[in-house]
Amino acid sequence: MRGLTWTVGSTRIVDDVTFDVADGEFVAVIGPNGAGKTSLFNLISGLIRPTAGSVTLDGVDLTAAPPHRRARLGLGRTFQSSSVFPALTVRENVRIAAASRGSCLRLWRRASADRAASSAAEAALDDVGLSSHAADLAGTLSHGDKRKLELAVLLATEPRIMLLDEPMAGVATGDVPALTELIREIHRAGRPVLMVEHHMEVLLGLADRVAVMHHGALLAIDTPARVMDDETVQHAYVGEPL
Ligand SMILES: Nc1ncnc2c1ncn2[C@@H]1O[C@H](COP(=O)(O)OP(=O)(O)OP(=O)(O)O)[C@@H](O)[C@H]1O
Predict the structure, then answer these.
(1) What predicted TM-score, i.e. pTM, was given to this entire model?
(2) Which residue from 67, 82, 103, 234 could staple onto 46, CB 3.0 to 4.6 Å apart?
(3) How confident is the model at residue 104, as a pLDDT?
C-alpha cells in the first residue's frame, strides 16, 4: 500500500500509510484502541475507498476494485467479529466459500466444479482440524472452533494473501496457543499473512515484522523485538499494555 489515507470530515482516520508485505512474509498490525487498524484493513480489502493512496497486489492496482474482485484476485480476509453462517453445517460453510472460488456458469462444467469445491472444502477442514465437526451446525461450535472455521472458509478460497483481523478476539485464553500454532502452520504452508492483533506476546516468534499504528499513522515497522524496544512505541502505548 502506498500513501493510504482515509479522511472522515476533517479527521484522518488512516493517515498516509505505506508499507509492503513481501511474498511469504508475516506482518502484524498493532496499535492502541482506535488507532485505525480495522479501517486500514477495510481500505485494503475494498470495504471503504481511500481518500488518497493505492493498494497493489502482485503488481495489479486494486485501488478502484470492489471487494469481490479483490477477493477473486487473491485478497482473502477474516473479520474481527465472527462471520460464519450459524444455521448451516460446518461443511456447508466451507463448501460455499470453495464454490465461490471457481465460479463457472457453463452448465456442463458444474458437476466437476462441484466435486472440486467439495474436495477443497474437505482439505480446508482437515487443515484446521475441524473434519470431525463437519456435520455440526456452525452455530453450535465453541468460539475457538468458529475462529478455526473462519480460517477454513478463507483457505477454501485459496487466497494469495491472508488478512486476519484479530483472529484471537473472544477466544478462551486456553485456546490461544493452539490457534496461534494453526495460524503459524497456515503461514508456513506458503501464504503471506497480514494480521491485526492486540497481544504482543502472540506475535513474538510468529510475525516477521510488526507495523505499529497510532492516530491513523504508521509509527514504526520492524521486528517484534525492536518494536518492543522502541521508545516512541512505548510512549504511544502509555496506559495500555504493549
Ligand atoms: N465510519 C466511520 N466514521 C467515523 N469515524 C470512524 C468510522 N470508522 C471508524 N471510525 C473511527 O476511526 C478510528 C479508528 O477506528 P478503527 O476501528 O479503525 O480502529 P482500531 O485500531 O481497529 O480499533 P480497535 O483496536 O478498538 O479495534 C476510531 O476513532 C473510530 O471511532
Answers:
(1) 0.89
(2) 67
(3) 46
